[in-house]
Amino acid sequence: MRVLVIEDEARLAGIIQRVLRAEKFDVDLTARGDDGLEAALTGSHDVLIVDRLLPGLDGVALVNRLRDAGVETPVLMLTALSDMPRRVEGLNAGADDYLGKPFAFEELIARLRALTRRGGRPILDQQLESGPLRIDLANRQVTRDGEPLDLTQKEFSLLEALVRNRNRVMTRDELLERVWGYDADPQGNVVELYIHYLRRKLDPPEATASTSMIRTVRGSGYQIRSS
Q1: Same CATH topology for 2-118 and 127-224?
Q2: Tell me: the pLDDT tens digits for 120-163?
Q3: N or C: which end of the chain has fewer CB within 10 A?
Q4: pLDDT in tens, 66-82
Q5: Taking the CA of residue 185 as centre, how many other CA atoms within 13 Å lie in the half-sphere pointing to its CB?
């Protein structure tokens, strides 16, 4: 799936590109609205991520021109201007969804999937598996050995990140960025706290540190066990 990201904040654009590529998206970047419009008019992208405030041409004008030209590619608009009139303006211009900054990347990915599903395009990896775990991304449901698990939104997103990256250890900072967003406080212990919550729900009562579904790699991070 090919995504065009039109975002002038270089750090954020780079993080979005890295996160989406890890999810097997093809990602193109542009930092100006006029350049983004030219790229989007080719119709070669499956979904567009468009910042609301852009140099050259703002996001609302960009989407308006796309729709006037008959380009129906789904658009997810990003903005720090999250008040209702601004959201309505973007949606009325032809955007399909709106995400206010700062945001968690798991929510960004979920919204992209929803947009592509709505547009009748293929959806990436809607079923994930790791050992006894089965994750239904479309319905946001998790089972272990066929038994449903009751997870909160953050617990689900944390587990999804671990399972998608099950072949490697994920650092605390990676998990913080992906699940809680690029503006999350790196000094807090929220990752450790939610790892603890997840273990209580994933592991049987007799589980030990050596048999827990989530392995702690001292000094490195966390990894889901696949068996």
Answers
A1: no
A2: 444 445 688 899 999 987 778 999 999 999 999 899 989 988 99
A3: C
A4: 999 999 999 999 987 65
A5: 4
Domain positions in the chain are 2-118, 127-224
Q: If phi over 0 gives left and psi between -120 and 50 gives alpha, with beta otherwise, what is residue 86?
A: alpha
Fold of the domain spanning 127-224: Arc Repressor Mutant, subunit A (1.10.10)
Q: Read off the amino acid at residue 156.
A: F
Beta strand extents in 52-200 (DSSP E only) = 75-79, 97-100, 127-130, 133-136, 141-144, 147-149
Identify the residue whose tokens are 């587990």: 159
**What is the amino acid identity at position 75?**
V
pTM higher than the cut 0.85:
no
Token pair for 13: 């654009």
At 177, which amino acid appears?
Answer: E
Dist CA 59 CA 50 (whole Å): 6
The Cα–Cα gap between 171 and 184 comes to 15
- Residue 162: the pLDDT is 92
2-118 has which fold? Answer: Rossmann fold (3.40.50)
- Going by the DSSP 8-state scheme, the letter that residue 121 receives in this structure is -
Q: Is 202 exposed, middle or buried (0-12, 13-18, 19+ CB in 10 A)?
A: buried
Separation of alpha carbons 196 and 23, rounded Å: 25
